[in-house]
Design the sequence.
């Protein structure tokens, strides 16, 4: 039987160290991109300016993200969950606890509170993208369609949960209920009320919770 050669001890640490360095570099890039997108707009923000802001090379950004639309999507996804842990929003403890709620009114009010927290993190990015899409930017238009689809998928989960609880109004299908949730929790509504009309986050969440209950629940 042949002898085994032990690998140097340092090698057992190299991969985790490189992975952590890569994670920190990626976060520097996404933080820099987030600041620049909001400060000067998507069109005026180039990968070169993000690279300077993050203290990396443009080639590094290209290697990690590939394109500016892909970088914007990553910035959006990180803002959506609030950190860079590889845990989807649907698998977060607070979301799972919300879906475990048996009282439909409490479930909807919890969803409104979650929507408020998410909107405060990602709403400015979405409004920025929507404005650019309306201005004819094809990259932003594609991005907006993607995030709208993701939002609609989430609202269908909400509507289906109400259906499971037997709480939906009898004149509503799951699809139509989903449309109502999608509209009431849209980033545009959040922007109009909190950014243009000066509502507080608490006022917004309370109103959305009440509106969802009125629009969806059997009386």
Sequence:
């Amino acid at each position: 039987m042949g002898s085994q050669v032990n690998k140097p001890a340092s090698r057992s640490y190299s991969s985790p160290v490189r992975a952590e360095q890569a994670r920190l570099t990626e976060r520097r890039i996404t933080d820099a991109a987030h600041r620049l997108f909001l400060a000067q707009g998507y069109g005026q923000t180039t990968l070169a300016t993000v690279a300077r802001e993050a203290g990396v090379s443009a080639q590094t950004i290209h290697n990690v993200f590939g394109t500016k639309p892909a970088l914007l999507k990553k910035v959006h996804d990180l803002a959506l969950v609030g950190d860079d842990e590889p845990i989807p929003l649907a698998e977060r403890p607070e979301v799972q606890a919300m879906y475990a709620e048996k009282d439909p009114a409490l479930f909807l009010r919890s969803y409104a509170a979650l929507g408020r927290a998410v909107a405060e993190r990602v709403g400015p990015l979405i409004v920025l993208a929507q404005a650019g899409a309306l201005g004819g930017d094809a990259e932003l238009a594609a991005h907006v369609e993607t995030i709208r689809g993701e939002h609609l998928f989430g609202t269908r989960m909400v509507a289906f949960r109400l259906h499971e609880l037997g709480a939906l109004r009898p004149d509503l299908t799951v699809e139509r209920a989903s449309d109502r949730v999608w509209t009431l929790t849209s980033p545009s509504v959040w922007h109009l009320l909190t950014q243009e009309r000066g509502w507080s986050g608490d006022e917004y969440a309370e109103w959305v919770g009440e509106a969802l209950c009125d629009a969806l629940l059997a009386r």
Residues 96 and 213 are 20 Å apart (CA to CA).
